[in-house]
Amino acid sequence: MKVFDKPVDPHDLQQVLTRIDTVLGPDGVIAEHLHDYEYRPGQIDMAHTVAQALWDGRVGIVEAGTGTGKSLAYLIPAAYWAVSQGEKIVVSTNTITLQEQLVNKDIPFLHGVLDIAFQAALIKGWSNYLCLNRLYNASQSHQMTFWESDPREVAALLEWVNRCPGGSRSEVDFPISDELWGAVCAEGDACLRNDCPYLDRCFYFQERRQAFASDIIIVNHHLLFADLALRQILGFDTKWSVLPPYRYVIWDEAHHVEDVATNYFGCNVSRIGVNRLLGRLLRLRQGRAMGLLPHIRFLLESDDAIPPKRSQALLESVDNEIIPALHSVEASGHRFFARLAQLIQAKATATDRVLALPPTPGAVELWRVMAEERTAFLETLQLLATSVASLRDGSADLEGKIWDTTRAELGAICNRVKETCQSAEFLVSHPDPGFVYWAELSGRRREPSLAAVPIDVAEHLRHNVYQHLQGAVFTSATLAIDSRFDHLRHRLGLDLEGDMTQEHCLSNQALESIVNSPFFYREQVLLCVPTDMEAPRRGRYGQSLAQYILKVLLTTSGRAFVLFTSYRLLNEAYAYCREPLADAGIVALSQGTAPRSLLLEQFREDTRSVLFGTSSFWEGVDVPGETLSCVILTKLPFQVPTEPVVAARIRRLEESGQNSFASYMLPQAVIRFKQGFGRLIRRSTDQGIVVVCDNRILSRSYGETFLRSIPQCQMMAAPAEETLGAISAWLGS
Predict the structure, then answer these.
(1) 3-state DSSP call for residue 421?
(2) What's the pLDDT tens digit per position in 636-648?
(3) Does one domain contain both 624 and 671?
(4) What is the pTM of this model?
(5) What is the rounded CA–CA span in Å between residue 22 and residue 1?
């Protein structure tokens, strides 16, 4: 709908604000399109803040309560900005759910109501897309030596190629193994680019071309930071980046930015990862050799166009250089990781199986003990990288697309080996006081791994991200602590930058705004705190918690989320409640028994069900209506203080004279608490109860910080039995 006669003046912010008001106002354009449109002044306030941040080239920080409509509040000014300025804007989210909402719902809707024409594109990482060249070449290789998949699965994938619109794994409508997808998905360093015979059909580059032609680019935090990690190595404006050039970013679900950035500025090496990498070259399955090396052997032995002496020389390179080097890595890696596992088991606690490693050379006793193993491991990795590169270069004169692809595969593996070697060397040889190091046994098979991440990402973000951005917006429903953004600004390095020699988004004071939810929480929510519950650290806490949870669930007839901070407590409560709930006709669903999406689908379909969940269910779950009428928060969600990253951050804060609990542990827990509380009310017609089974929210001074962080609602603090009566009465009202 065209509502203005003149195009947007790129220099007139007031004009843009007027257009936003016209679109979102009570009698505006959207109101004309939606008969049940609810005017939300907070949505306009947020849109104004976003617009001002973009036009002024500043950082904008906006906490938008549930029901604000924050997606439209940032998409509308982003569209006006991008079109009027000729600038691309990256919108980054943490969850697939929100990405799909933006692409499939919000943006198509705006195409119909805004007076400007804008384009938007969704970009995923390389491995999300099928590579046609890898698929066709691997499927034609001798006995399909790249994988041991069922031939029917391969045939199904080949047939699917002809009918899939986007070539993304999420579009595959039949089961497909990770191994098969890993063999045929796109990889940046295995891509032939302009030399690829399927370039005009390439799914990845089709999406990338669309992104280059778009105004708004939708990504997730992981892809954005993977792209930033690449730009850190090759330069911010490198042409090899995943995303097109950009200077403006909107981070939605911004409370995840620190965690994602921490992982991408760190590194890790694991036994599983090394074995998987070696398996790309050669692996044995039931006496059958599989991988790239058997494929190369078949090509050399079957291609009559290659002179016999040439073929024999390359085969000798495989047999006398690469395979011995590969076996050396296998042997040294086995000794390295076996010794590492032995030391972790000896020094770490039985429960966490994590061994924190002090980052100073003299303190890292582990590397002194493992001197021989680590030296051999690094040397053999370097030797393997050299031998693979030698084979790649030695086959440079062999012509044909099959050899182009094979050399690209060799190059990709060579790069991965080099990266593994560099990560391992950083982990075992060059301790950095700015990083926290740890060794861990993970998974059911207790596989050993090493990892290191920066203790503080603020400076990394400043130097690797913000200095290249001219505008940035951070938004979420949970960013503020006590109505302030001090914690977020400190953790993400968003304080005013002192270096004014370069124009960037930190050159001016950040714009901050808290937009309250439009919902009437005092009428919609009852907050219950049983005052006579066992304290979380008491021996009988788990038992008394399970008993109380069962009583609440029977009172509510299911219709509840039960959110835990540990799998141990979840499993105890689930085991205790499952059969009594079943006897009452209530289905108990537990995280870990089925995929998350399937559990949510079952919960939504069965109005007499209960879902027991941990971390991933505290946020990003939208279940409106009576299906979810009760949320039970079993404990205040404090992080485990002995977890290596948390412990390192606590130590650094204490060493600088700060109170680590007040400045880090408490704010992190409050943000998590707000996320859990926010699961209950998703629509203006919702009503229900939030039960907090941790009376520290009443007995400790910091409890007030938790209570002030959530919208004002009715509250009842009473013995457990009395809360049950109040819950029954509330749901019956």
Answers:
(1) helix
(2) 999 999 888 999 9
(3) yes
(4) 0.90
(5) 12
